[in-house]
Specification:
Blueprint: H1 3-9, H2 13-38, H3 52-58, H4 69-85, H5 87-97, E1 101-107, E2 110-113, H6 120-146, H7 153-187, E3 193-196, E4 204-205, H8 207-215, H9 219-224, E5 226-227, H10 233-247
Antiparallel strand pairs: 1-2, 1-3, 4-5
Length: 260
């Protein structure tokens, strides 16, 4: 037996496997190199591009949701409902902050103010408008910040409708308090002192009368029945604030996840 044969026989199984693996790699590398030289003229295929949503997840951005008119309308409707519901606590705040005018009952059904020129008549409108102004600014900022994925004119429409609805609810609650006060005045005995609740004086809102005037073509009467007055303060403040936020946005779509 030759020296080469003896060395081959004395190899351990692991050494033998290493020789075979090394030989296999060398042989495979040779075939790949040969195949590469033969097909050098063929351009390699481009790797598949990752989906934009996967890229957004890699870079830590929230994937952009599909934007449709239906989803924007749903978001605007939700905002309008929430703002309208805020009319209840707004009415309670209005009733608390507005000073009341004191009356004394002269005789059954007749009353007289204890002050010559009470300021409570005007302060009711001023406090109501002030609450609407603050709520409009806050509502616009919250809508711009919390609903950034639905920014646009449709959301602004929901903001306007909800703002008007909020103040209409507060106004109606005040009107019910007003009516309850006059009912109590009629039943109160002479000499009793009562305090008039706040009310909005410069408002003329009667949708039924406006619709009846529109059906006969009387547009002037219809507009007279839709005088919002102080009921439009919150909507105007919200529109102005939302428009200012949109004007300072660097993105045409107004969405923070869209490219600049």
């Amino acid at each position: 037996m030759t020296d080469d044969a003896e060395r081959t026989v004395n190899l351990r199984p692991g050494d033998s496997a290493g020789w075979e693996d090394s030989a296999g790699r060398n042989d495979s590398a040779g075939r790949n190199d040969s195949a590469g030289r033969e097909g050098a003229a063929v351009a390699p295929a481009d790797p598949p591009r990752a989906d934009a949503r996967d890229d957004a997840n890699v870079y830590g951005r929230t994937p952009r949701s599909e934007r449709t008119i239906g989803r924007d309308l749903a978001a605007a409707g939700f905002l309008a409902v929430v703002l309208t519901a805020i009319g209840l606590p707004a009415a309670m705040l209005w009733q608390i902050l507005t000073p009341r005018v004191e009356f004394v009952i002269v005789e059954s059904g007749r009353w007289a103010s204890t002050e010559t020129y009470p300021s409570g008549y005007v302060e009711g409108d001023l406090v109501f408008a002030g609450i609407g102004l603050v709520l409009g600014i806050v509502a616009a900022i919250m809508a711009w910040t919390a609903m950034r994925g639905r920014r646009g004119p449709i959301l602004l429409l929901g903001l306007v409708i909800g703002s008007i609805g909020c103040q209409v609810v507060a106004w109606k609650i005040g009107a019910n308090e007003w009516q309850a006060f006059w009912d109590a005045v009629e039943r109160a005995p002479a000499g009793a002192h009562m305090w008039r609740p706040p009310s909005v004086l410069f408002v003329e809102l009667d949708p039924a009368a406006a619709w009846a005037a529109l059906k006969v073509g009387n547009f002037t009467t219809a507009l007279d029945a839709l005088q919002l007055g102080a009921l439009a303060v919150m909507a105007l403040a919200a529109t102005f604030t939302y428009t200012v936020c949109a004007g300072w946005s660097r993105r045409p779509s107004l969405r923070t996840d869209a490219p600049e």
